[in-house]
Write a structure and sequence with these properties.
It is built from 45 helices and two strands. By secondary structure, it is mainly alpha-helical. Strands 1-2 form a two-stranded parallel ribbon. The chain is elongated and about 120 Å long. The two termini are 71 Å apart.
């Protein structure tokens, strides 16, 4: 069973996904990526994964809410990749608890013949018994070998045994009760125990069958003759049940109401029993007599067992409004009366469950935490922790969900997988099962929930460790298919945590037969893509791994043709990325045409991508005529493929790199102006590249053309689906307006980004540009009036960026430098000096000892900051502080201002060595 939904979807059965999207940044003009036959679409976002839903279903079932549990089990069963046989067994058990035996039989009939073991027979026997087919139930029981039962089904087996004794001819009540008690003692919680007790009552009700008129007259006479006596109350109870079994439910309800109206208050035992039967057979809707009787039993009863059963019957009848609201009121009134601790514990948990179902997360968490605090040895503690897990998950508080799932595991003690480790002799009347004894499967499920919560939280190291722990400790509890998926998910977590160790993990898992070839191949694919982003060395490692995998005799032979074709494409692509175009040409020539066994559509897609890769390799080798011919053939042979469309971008990049701007623009126009590509997702990228090329030419008319290209871009249908491209385009548009000295227009462009993309991490780039725009407008050319509000806005934005801990250090340093300049210009030189030293130089140069990244901009801005600080302090007469700033600039070997610093120091009488001395 898949108890988690992968962050990355599985490969489609046929066909290729869209090409890998181009990565567009505001500051880089990167060449577009080639199409890939393995692109992954993000999995559909779901607030709750299957593992959490399964825990909720099990919790509902244990608490006596079988209809809710059945609905959740059905949802899980219908999900893609579900272990339907296992979920059908769980669903059938819930339906049997809900007294819907006919539906349970339909579900059980879906289980394949080869999977109808002892667990299936227990449920089939219970269904047959509910349908009054006792011989069939006995036949199922006879075929069961107790040693084959999973530990979690042993209680049901005991119950079935008791029910068969209860319905046998002759009836053996003593033996029946013995097995009923054993079933209750094996229940994991007090509420589950009440569930078995309630099921026993329903079995006994069915024993009456449909009575004759003579039986009814005799029962009515017994109730009248012994009215007011202990036997009379039992006779009245039996008479009401017989009426109900005869289809005369209204008479049965009225009969019980009359007896209750005359029963004196001291007859508490009899009143509890009569109210319970009235609740069992009466109407439990909002104003029903059955519901009223159950509420009275809760509020004034003395039989704790019957009160728990009443709570379950009310909860089961309150799934929808208005009964749900009524149940909330009933629980509030019950808890306000401070019931006995066992009932208080159960009622509090039901209120927590109700709050969670209504989305009232604070109330649900408050009730669950109160239960954990007030009942330190409660059997409901594990359910409280799983409820908190679900609440945290639905609020996307994944770190908290992981912590709660871990604590739920801590409440549990694993049981063995089969009942043979707990022989019948060891389970006798009076013995108590371990409070938290559960099958290892439950612990495995919680472990997977914890791991996926860490994954969703972005703590991939913890996620990888949690997946590894589940695989190590709970392996025996998992089916092979699920085991393979967990192995794959562990690899994904390792890759996300840093691909350095992921290869070792894959190599270890490859030796495990459960890690099938498809999962291993997908793992290698993901690792290769991650390594491809790690520079030249990463590309070489990826290429070596893929080449080795394809060279393995056994593995290569067993790979499906589709998988092998994709892997071979990846090998050629990595060969190109590793800087070996000649080898790439050789690999492409080996694959052209593709294996005949694969789907025709897939074969065309791969052939087109390989043709594009060949053209790129020829361009890299300087074989321009051959490359252009290959590109022409690509567009002629595969005109509507992603590879053909993206080839215009590739060719344009080639010409742009040679400063052949007109040629580069013409290739892009060939794409953007072609009607058959109007809806292609590559068109907005082509328009963006056209804008960049026009901007590159630099003349006013070119800049205006660039702006128009961006306006065309935002109107294309495909651009709407790519907010990253829209953000980059609008940001570039603001920069173009600034080059045109149209600062109000630039301000509007940046304002739009700040207001509409506030959740993007790189929105700080737009905020910095907006601050610059205000700053420029605050200092207009001589003769033009200034607007002080622009200076105020710029200062506020610079301050926010300087203090924003989630912003890149480059942005914070640049903002701090410009803030100091603005303050100095406004005459606040003391503040400017403080900002430069305390907020820029100290945290980002003096205290930050890590070397800057190769493309980092902050060394330049740090050098500018020290230069300006030295100049400011010099003008203020603080020569020693000025010297310190200049000396620090030289000491740190910053890339700007060295000549200025030496000149100023020499003017102040400080001798400094020059480079090379």
């Amino acid at each position: 069973m898949r108890f988690f939904r992968k962050i990355f979807t599985r490969l489609p059965a046929g066909g290729l996904a869209l090409a890998a999207a181009l990565t567009v940044s505001a500051s880089a003009q990167e060449a577009p990526a080639a199409p890939a036959p393995l692109s992954r679409k993000p999995a559909a976002s779901a607030p709750v994964p299957p593992g959490v839903t399964l825990a909720a279903a099990q919790r509902a079932h244990d608490l006596g809410l079988p209809s809710i549990a059945a609905q959740l089990y059905q949802e899980l069963r219908d999900a893609p990749g579900a272990d339907r046989a296992a979920l059908d067994l769980a669903l059938a058990a819930a339906l049997l608890d809900a007294a819907d035996a006919a539906a349970a039989v339909e579900v059980l009939e879906r289980v394949p013949e080869g999977q109808r073991g002892a667990a299936w027979r227990v449920r089939s026997g219970l269904a047959a018994l509910q349908l009054d087919q006792r011989p069939a139930a006995q036949a199922h029981w006879d075929a069961i070998r107790e040693a084959e039962l999973p530990a979690e089904d042993l209680a049901w087996y005991r119950f079935l045994t008791g029910a068969l004794w209860d319905t046998a001819t002759p009836r053996d009540v003593t033996r029946a009760n013995t097995f009923y008690v054993q079933a209750e003692e094996l229940a994991p919680t007090v509420m589950a125990r009440a569930r078995f007790q309630l099921a026993g009552e329903r079995v006994r009700l069915r024993l009456y069958g449909k009575p004759s008129e003579a039986d009814l007259r005799q029962a009515r006479e017994n109730a009248r003759q012994f009215a007011g006596q202990a036997y009379g109350y039992e006779a009245a109870r039996n008479y009401a049940v017989m009426l109900a079994e005869s289809g005369r439910r209204e008479e049965a309800v009225e009969s019980l109401q009359r007896v209750l109206a005359t029963a004196p208050a001291p007859e508490r035992v009899a009143r509890d029993e009569l109210r319970f039967v009235l609740g069992l057979i009466g109407d439990r809707t909002r104003a029903g007599a059955g519901r009223a009787a159950l509420v009275q039993l809760l509020e004034s009863g003395s039989n704790l067992q019957r009160q728990r059963q009443a709570l379950q019957l009310l909860a089961e009848a309150s799934r929808e409004e208005p009964e749900r609201g009524q149940f909330r009121t009933e629980l509030n009134r019950l808890l306000a009366g401070r019931p006995a601790p066992p009932l208080l514990e159960a009622a509090r948990f039901f209120r927590a469950q109700l709050a969670l179902a209504e989305g009232d997360f604070p109330r649900a968490e408050s009730e669950a935490n109160a239960l954990l605090k007030d009942f330190p040895v409660s059997r409901l503690r594990v359910h409280a922790w799983t409820l908190l897990t679900q609440s945290a998950w639905e609020q996307r508080r994944y770190r908290l969900a992981a912590d709660y799932a871990n604590k739920a595991k801590g409440e549990l003690v694993p049981a063995t997988g089969a009942a043979e480790s707990r022989p019948a002799a060891a389970i006798r009347p009076g013995s108590a099962a371990t409070d938290t004894l559960v099958p290892a499967r439950v612990l495995a499920d919680l472990g997977v929930i914890e791991a996926e919560a860490w994954f969703r939280a972005g703590d991939y190291r913890s996620a990888a460790d949690a997946y590894a722990a589940v695989l190590r400790e709970r392996r025996a509890a998992m089916a092979p298919g699920r085991l393979a998926e967990l192995m794959f998910q562990r690899v994904l977590a390792e890759i996300k945590a840093g691909p350095a160790d992921a290869g070792r993990v894959i190599d270890e898992l490859a030796a495990d037969p459960a890690f099938d070839l498809e999962n291993r191949w997908e793992a290698e694919w993901n690792l290769a893509r991650a390594l491809n982003l790690q520079g030249a060395e990463g590309v070489r490692q990826a290429y070596a791994r893929i080449t080795r995998l394809l060279g393995e005799p056994a593995g290569a032979a067993e790979l499906k043709p589709e998988l092998r074709a994709r892997m071979a494409w990846l090998q050629a692509r990595l060969s190109f990325d590793s800087g070996n175009p000649a080898e790439t040409l050789r690999l492409v020539d080996l694959q052209v045409g593709g294996p005949a066994e694969i789907d025709a559509t897939l074969r065309v897609e791969i052939a087109s991508i390989l043709t594009l890769l060949k053209a790129r390799s020829e361009l890299a080798l300087g074989r321009e005529p051959a490359a252009l011919e290959t590109l022409k053939r690509l567009r002629d042979d595969y005109p509507r493929t992603d590879a053909a469309i993206s080839s215009y971008l590739i060719e344009s990049e080639y010409y742009a790199a040679q400063d052949k701007i007109d040629e580069a623009r013409n290739r892009l126009i060939g794409l953007t102006d072609n009607p058959q590509y109007a809806t292609s997702p590559y068109v907005p990228y082509a328009l963006y590249r056209l804008a960049l090329l026009s901007e590159r030419l630099g003349r006013e008319e070119n800049l205006k053309e660039a702006n128009q290209r961006i306006e065309d871009l935002v109107k294309t249908p495909a651009a709407v689906a790519d907010p990253g491209l829209l953000f980059a385009a609008r940001l570039r548009q603001g920069d173009i307006f600034r080059k045109l000295n149209d600062f109000p227009a630039a301000q509007r462009a940046y304002d739009y980004l700040v207001n509409n993309y506030a959740q993007r991490p790189d929105v700080v780039v737009a905020q910095l540009a907006l601050a610059d725009c205000h700053n420029i407008q605050a200092s207009p050319p001589p003769g033009q009036p200034g607007d002080p509000s622009h200076a105020d806005s710029a200062q506020l934005l610079y301050e926010q960026l300087r203090d924003r801990v989630d912003a890149p250090r480059d942005v914070r340093v640049e903002a701090g430098f410009k803030l100091g300049l603005l303050l100095a210009r406004r005459g606040r030189v003391e503040e400017a000096a403080k900002v430069w030293w305390s907020d820029v130089i100290t945290p980002f140069l003096v205290d930050d000892t890590k070397p800057a990244e190769p493309d980092a901009k902050r060394p330049y801005w740090l050098a500018r900051t020290l230069t300006e600080l030295g100049d400011l302090q010099e003008k203020r007469g603080k020569r020693e502080e000025a010297k310190a700033a200049y000396l620090l600039l030289l000491e740190k070997r910053l890339p700007f201002g060295g000549t200025i610093a030496r000149s100023r120091l020499e003017q102040m009488g400080v001798q400094v060595s020059r480079p090379g001395q």
